[in-house]
Amino acid sequence: MRESDSALNPEEYMPLREVVFLTLRSQILRGELKPGERLMEISLANRLGVSRTPIREAIRKLEHEGLVVMIPRRGAHVAEITQQELKDVLEIRKSLEILAVTKICRCITDREIGELEKAEEIFARQVMKKDSDPAALGEADEQFHEMIYNATHNRRMIQILNNLREQMYRFRMEYLKDKEVRMKIVEEHEAILNAIRRRDEQEAVRLEQEHIDNQYRSIMKSLEERCAGRTGYEQSE
Amino acid sequence: MRESDSALNPEEYMPLREVVFLTLRSQILRGELKPGERLMEISLANRLGVSRTPIREAIRKLEHEGLVVMIPRRGAHVAEITQQELKDVLEIRKSLEILAVTKICRCITDREIGELEKAEEIFARQVMKKDSDPAALGEADEQFHEMIYNATHNRRMIQILNNLREQMYRFRMEYLKDKEVRMKIVEEHEAILNAIRRRDEQEAVRLEQEHIDNQYRSIMKSLEERCAGRTGYEQSE
DNA sequence: TTATAATGTATTGTATACAAAGTCAGCCGG
DNA sequence: CCGGCTGACTTTGTATACAATACATTATAA
Predict the structure, then answer these.
(1) A208 close to A200: Cβ distance less than 8 angstroms
(2) Which numeric CATH code is attached to A16-78?
C-alpha cells in the first residue's frame, strides 16, 4: 500500500498523514476541491487508498492552515474565503512583507542576492514563455517570494508569510492568466530586487507596498469577474 | 469516560481531542511539561484516561501551534525555545501590534474603548493586589491585549497575534513576579489606552513599540537570570 | 577491554472495529 | 396538504489491534 502512493517522495520517509496532507492541500489550492465541498473521511480514505487515521490527522493540519473548517460531529469542508478575509490576509502580509524587506536591506548577503536574482530570472522566463503552465508560473512566483522570506532568517516569519500567501493560491491561477498582470509582476519584482541590491530601504518598502496593493486589485478584479457569472465567495457561512 | 475529564467544559460538546489539546497546551505553557520533554502517546493516554487517537490528534494541533516538535517515528517532544526564536517572535509581534494599534485608532468605537478600559482596570487591580496569582495576572494581561486585537476586526490577525503571544507565556510567569515590571506594564497600558482614546496614531504606535521593547528586555533579563543558574534554552537542537 | 552484532522491548504508524450522534426519507395523523 | 415522528443509513468520534521501526541491552569475538 505504501507503494501505490501518488509518487511524491522518491527517497526519504514520509508518514502517510503527510502525504495525504500535501495531496489534499494541493487539491484545495488548485481548486479541484471546491470551497464548501465536504471532506468525507471514508470516501477520501478509499480514494487515496489509506485508512481513516492518516486522513483524520491530515485534516487536523489543514484545519489549522485555515484551508478546512470543522464542525463537530458534522465533518470537515473546504473553507470558503470571503472578500473581507482576503483583505485581512493582505493587510497582514503587507505589514510583514515590509518588515521582511526592511530587514533584508540591512542584512542580506551577496550570495543571497544572487539566489534572489536567479529566482527572479526563472520567474521572468516562465512569464515570457508563450503557453506557460499557470501552476508552474505560480510556483516560480512563490520561489521568488520565498527567497525574500528566507533572507530574513526569521523562521516564524517565513512560516507565517508562506501560510498567508497560501491562502491566495486559490485565486492566483485566475489572475495570473492575464498577460499584462504577469508582465507587471515581473517589472515589480525587478524593481524590488534593484532596491534591495542598492540596500535602499525606503524605496524597497515603497515598492513592496505597491506590489501588494496591485495584487489586491488584481485579485479583486478577477473575483468580481467570477462573481459576475456566479456567486459563491461573498458570504462567510 | 467522558465524565472523568478534567472539568473543562460545563455545557457544550467538545471532542476529546480538543480537551486533550487544551490540557496539554496549558501544561506546556505553565511549565508542567518542560521543554525537551518527550510526549509519549500511551503514557499520555493513560494519564488522561483516553485512547491514543485523540492524543495523536491533539499533538498534531500542538505541532502546528509550534509548542511541540515531531520527529517521524521518534515521537513528539515539547519545543525548546531559543533566545533567537523569542527575538523573532517579538519582531513579528511588534510589526503586527503596531498595525493593530494604527488600525484601531482609526476605527475603534466608544463601546470598544469602554471594554478596553474595563480590561485595563481589571489588570491594574490584579497588579495592586498583594499576593496576586501570577497565572491570574497573566490572564488579565492577556485579556487587555486580546481586546486590542479584537478591535481590529481582522480575525486572522487576532489568531496570529494570540499565537505569537502564546509562545511567551512560558516566560511570563517568571518576569511577572517582579513588582516593578508589573507597575511599569500598568503604566504603559494606560498610556496606550490614552493615546487610543485620543485617536493619536503616532503616539499610540510609539508607546506600543516601547511596550514590546520593554517586554523584550524583561524577558531577556529573566532568561539570563535563569541561565545563570542552569542552562537549557540557548541551543536549538 | 572494546567494538560489533543480535535480540528484545518500547514506541510510533496504520488499519479496523465499535459506539454515538446526526441526517433524511417515508409514514402517519391532524 | 402539511407537520412531526420513526427508523434506517451515514458519518464522525473513540478505542483497540497489528505492523514496522528505533533504541537499549547484552553477549560474543577480536
Answers:
(1) no
(2) 1.10.10.10
Q: What are phi and psi of A76, to 5 degrees?
A: -110, 150
Reading the block at residue A111, the C-alpha cell is 550570495
The answer to whether residue B52 neighbours chain A at the CB level (below 8 Å) is no
Q: Which of the nucleotides lies closest to A44 (Cα–C1')?
A: D11
How much is the pTM? 0.89
Nearest residue to A181 via CA among A143, A150, A211: A211
Q: Where are the domains of chain B?
A: 16-78, 83-231
H or E element that contains A78: strand A75-78
First and final CA of chain B: distance in angstroms? Answer: 38
Tens digits of pLDDT across chain A (237 residues): 333 333 443 456 889 999 999 999 999 998 899 999 999 999 999 999 999 999 999 999 999 899 999 988 888 999 988 889 999 999 999 999 999 999 999 999 999 999 999 999 999 999 988 777 888 888 899 999 999 999 999 999 999 999 999 988 888 888 888 888 889 999 999 999 999 999 999 999 999 999 999 999 988 888 887 766 544 433 333
Interface of A with B in 140-169 (CB under 8 A): 154-157, 160, 164
CATH number of A83-231: 1.20.120.530
Q: What angle do CA B145, B151, B154 make, to 5 degrees?
A: 100
